[in-house]
Amino acid sequence: SQKIEQNSEALNIQEGKTATLTCNYTNYSPAYLQWYRQDPGRGPVFLLLIRENEKEKRKERLKVTFDTTLKQSLFHITASQPADSATYLCALRDTGGFKTIFGAGTRLFVKA
Amino acid sequence: DTGVSQDPRHKITKRGQNVTFRCDPISEHNRLYWYRQTLGQGPEFLTYFQNEAQLEKSRLLSDRFSAERPKGSFSTLEIQRTEQGDSAMYLCASSLTGGSYEQYFGPGTRLTVT
Prior knowledge:
The structure holds two protein chains of two kinds.
Chain A: E1 3-6, E2 11-14, E3 19-26, E4 32-38, E5 45-51, E6 56-59, E7 62-67, E8 72-77, E9 86-93, E10 100-102, E11 106-111
Chain B: E1 5-7, E2 10-13, E3 19-24, E4 31-37, E5 44-50, E6 53-57, E7 65-68, E8 75-79, E9 88-95, E10 104-105, E11 109-113
Parallel strand pairs in B: 2-11
Antiparallel strand pairs in B: 1-3, 3-8, 4-5, 4-9, 5-6, 7-8, 9-10, 9-11
């Protein structure tokens, strides 16, 4: 069956450390993968997109990797801040369609 | 343009009633998506429009759900004969065609069915 999985347990880290979140997928062949941030009671906000032919993408303190062999994407936030506390969602678009499939998200807490 | 807007923000209805939600996407965006999100889950795809054409609809969506985008601008999502299991946040998102796949989400409509 097709699945997209993120760590269901919340991630607690200390301010200044690097947060690493994982997204694994099964039985999809996505052309690209996206990461979104969602704060409670609000809609998701787009952060980064990485294509299947890209290994790594960076934007300010954010870095995303995409390994199509492992079927995994890693999302890193360096020098984390309490304001980074939120739920982070990964999403992919299945080939041949328009549907975007989201993972359940990982809740990140950054302690001062 | 300030982004995607949705109306109402909250809706409480009794089981069996019909409800309609509206989404106004970013004006130049021709792609529009509807999602449903429950607590602790990611957004679940419901349907997709490109301009006024509804190009994909989730198989999970029962016949009680219908969506329209009559002039390729705003969209409505109607739920008929609501059930308690329909209680969720309903999110709308829009994006541009032409290689840009990032979706801009609205604030959502929270539906509570009593």
